[in-house]
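User: I'm putting together a small comparison set for a docking exercise, and I want a reference complex before I start. The sequence is below, and the ligand is zinc ion. Could you produce the 3D structure with the ligand included, as structure tokens?
Assistant: Of course. I'll restate your input first, then give the structure tokens for the complex.
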Amino acid sequence: MKQQIICSTCGTYYPFTSFPDSCTICSDERQYIPDGGQLWTMPEDLHQKHSIKLNKITEHLYEFEINPTFAIGQRALLVLSERGNVLWDCIPMLDELTIEFIKSKGGLSAIGFSHPHFYSNMNDWAETFNCPIYIHENDAEHVMVKGKHVQFWKGDEVTLWEGMRLILIGGHFAGSSVLHVPFLSNQGSLICGDTLFLSPSKKHFSVVWSSPNRMPLPLSEMSRIKERFDSIPFDAFYGYIKTQNLTKDVKKVFEESMNRYFL
Ligand SMILES: [Zn+2]
Ligand SMILES: [Zn+2]
């Protein structure tokens, strides 16, 4: 693989020959450049200081996270399905143990993304498993390196297989999307990234333009997004970090959370 450099704040990979003065993703008003300025690291350093932790959530759902935490602490979720496994979002690191594990489960048939804060080293994952990367076309401008596996999808939703759907929500990014998996729970599970943000209390969902910068969305957007989620059946939720799992009263928590905006 070609030499690359990584933004330490968000985990986005750039070709070593053409990386910008500051990370394009972090320069956006939804992210931030840390005090003291842009920080970069190299893949070799990352591998020396960190490892990938694998956790089983259910029989057909696993999570990968970087230990100790790197970048925004994101996790990647692996959905096992008989007709092909799907990885939802990426962590900015890939090692031999992880590759072996995924191969032992049948490899990857697709990688899907919630939004640009998780693209990181997506081209490395896609090349390793020779599978397409699905990104909504609304977020095409945020792809820093468009490798040969990247496919931009259009419209409100796309069905993969076994009823799994990529669903466009918008809000945080114009292309913010979720993966709906019907076979993980009775009414279906939302694999969500931070398209919905579950609070630490697990009693509130928020939808925001920027989480780190505490920037809200206009009420008209909140109303549109609420309607969008109202049309999707789900009784389990898995967000962008490992503490964001909710499998009880999910729709109730969602309804109560959204109603706060319209009192
Ligand atoms: Zn960055
Ligand atoms: Zn984000």
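The pocket of zinc ion (ligand 1) is lined by residues 7, 9-10, 12, 23, 25-26 (CB under 6 Å). Residues 56 and 62 are 4 Å apart (CA to CA).
User: Thanks, that's exactly what I needed.
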